[in-house]
Amino acid sequence: MTITLEQLSKTYEGSNQPVLKDVAVQINDGEFFVIVGPSGCGKSTLLRMIAGLTSISSGRLLINGKVANQMPPKDRNLSMVFQSYALFPFMTVAENVGFGLKSRQLSATEIEHRVDDALAMVSLSELRDRKPKELSGGQRQRVALARAIASEAKICLMDEPLSNLDAQLRAKMRVELKQLQRSLGLTVIYVTHDQVEAMTMADRVLVLNDKKVQQVDTPVNLYQHPQNAFVAQFFGTPQINLLKADVVGHDLIVDSVLRLPLIQMRLNDSKVLVGIRPADIQIKVGPQQANARVVTVSYLGDQSVITAVLNDSQRFRIVADSQLQVAADDLIRIVGVKEFDVFDMNSKELIASQRGDVNDATVAATEF
Amino acid sequence: MEMSQPATTGTNVANAKKVGQYVLLLFLTFLVLGPFLLGLWTSLMPTADISKGALWSSHISLDNYVAAITTTPILRYLLNSLVISTLTMLFQVLLCSMSAYAFVFLKFKYRKQLFMLFLMTMMLPFEAEVIPNFSTVRSLGLLNHYAAMVIPFLTAAFGTFMLRQAFMQMPVELKEAADVEGLSHWQFYWHLALPYTKVSLMTLAAYSFLSSWNQYLWPMLTTFSDSFRPVQDGLRQLQGQESFNNWGMIQASAAIVVIPTLIILFVGQHYFKAGLNEGAVK
After folding, report:
1. CATH 2.40.50.140 domain span(s) along chain A
2. How high is the mean pLDDT of chain A?
3. Which of A228, A275, A336, B253 is the most exposed place for a label (fewest CB within 10 A)?
């Protein structure tokens, strides 16, 4: 089952501002496809358009090569898991799972068979006669999942299904969902605002922001080759550092005391944004030749996140070994930057990236 | 005031306030319940004593009730009212819920405008509709029949309005889940929308039953015989225009007439509890 979106747009009635513009992507059979973006970026709208719950203003939606713009939801052969689960409150777990099948007029034995299978798959067989209100959040979530499984639709749409669970359960369910998707060979379209969820579960990710698609790629590529500053900032914890810099000859001057030499590239712009991952910055603690001052240190166990401020008051984050003895107000010196990306100041699009090694003297920040 | 002031002063003030509140509440309760209890009490007294204006009698008995049941058509009135009110209630719940469903879950042109039109009929007092309704019912030849008292009240704008609110309270995801699962409108209406709004349906049922039960003006205009006359008009009928009024018996009939109302309220209370729909979302 492939799903193709061709220049999909959505404008709500009575408004001239589109909430989604020209979304184009092909979702392949058996793919775990994640749509991610900050709240209000239109990701749920996009999912609802695919489900047929929201009308499409322009563009085409193809399911298995067939135009499905006007197709009613039930004919799209898909299932959906909602953020709020949307269980039927006065039906038991088993009835909830089987109700849709009943309305499709399957035989009683077939329904029973599918319900049993689906409940076993999410390990809820023992709770089949409970009502939703007698279940915990995680169990309700599984009922919603079982309902999707029982429909045997090959496409499953999920709208932030884990966001109401606590952190530990969420991590566990992520793994289970992914396994389930593989073993059933489902094509999953999964909406989330959580970049960790997107990174850990997805085969491919569509990043949505400001009504537009920012990038569609694998998690690895999104992290390593972000096409614009938004994508770079969205993935990775702590966030990438975006520092304003002047281009002077072969150097990027972030600050009077921090220069990054450009080796494989030439830049035409005079002002750019430099994106540096916090883990790619090497520092030395001590007042000697210092070029930054520590503002806060967050201890995370195996590592520490240091927030520091440059002479020109630009802030940046560094991931350092937690063994490093450093405290607020300490002076530090940036001794090296492993790799960085350069973005356009206005369009925030990627202009160039530089990869290298910290030991490579030419890449290391020049000392003053 | 200093912090070291004994706490008892504050407690005394609070106590006095509470006592005052309860005295006021008791007084109001007495004010509301008084006439009702007085009526109940007089229904047990012989008419001779009631006529004298006495509040106490040495002959407290259920004689008035026996008299009401054996000498007047009160049971027939009760049956009439029961038939009329039950039919009105059933149809109002069914038709109002269906129209409310359409206003919430079906998308059609001029939905808003149509609903406004619906609401406008609610603003019109019933008394203003009496004459046109009467001539309609007369033209249909339904005078002095159950139909005259049921058909004009088969549906009510108020019921539609109330159930529309109830349906709008349903989480939108339930409808979306039903759409994805492939449920038809009938299935969603019957298996999900109605059970979900049970409390509102019960409220409407009780309300429509009682308002039908308590109707006076309309049945008075459209019924002329005991075989169709409902209770409220029947009670009036018991007070003869010129002859001697058996007040004790009339009072006993009035007490009988109130009983179904009380039953409805007590049964209804069972349903007015929260938490019926817990677990649907989150």
Report:
1. 237-359
2. 88
3. A336
A164 touches B at CB < 8 Å: yes
- What does DSSP assign to residue A94? H
The interface pTM score, or ipTM, of the predicted complex is: 0.80
Q: What residues of chain B score a pLDDT lower than 50?
A: 1-2, 274-275
Half-sphere exposure of B61 (CA within 13 A, CB side): 9
Instruction: Give chain B's radius of gyration (CA, Å).
Output: 25
**Domain spanning A237-359, CATH class:** mainly beta
Q: Where are the domains of chain B?
A: 4-63, 73-241
The fold adopted by the segment(s) B73-241 is: MetI-like fold (1.10.3720)
- Minimum Cα–Cα distance from A130: chain B residue: B279
Minimal C-alpha gap between A360 and chain B (Å): 54
Q: What is the DSSP letter of B192?
A: I
Q: Which of A38-52, A148-162, A217-231, A248-262 has the lowest mean pLDDT?
A: A248-262
Nearest CA of chain A to the CA of B167: how many Å?
14
Pick the CATH number of A3-228 from 3.40.50.300, 3.60.15.10, 3.10.250.10, 3.30.710.10: 3.40.50.300
Q: State the alpha helices, DSSP H only, in B198-246.
A: 198-213, 217-222, 231-238
pLDDT at A221 over 90: yes
User: For B177, which residue in chain A has the nearest alpha carbon?
Assistant: A86
Instruction: Give the pLDDT confidence of A16-69 residue by residue, as tens digits.
Output: 889 999 999 999 999 999 999 998 888 999 999 999 999 999 999 999 889 999
Q: What is the C-alpha to C-alpha distance for residues A159 and A198, in angstroms, rounded to an integer? A: 13
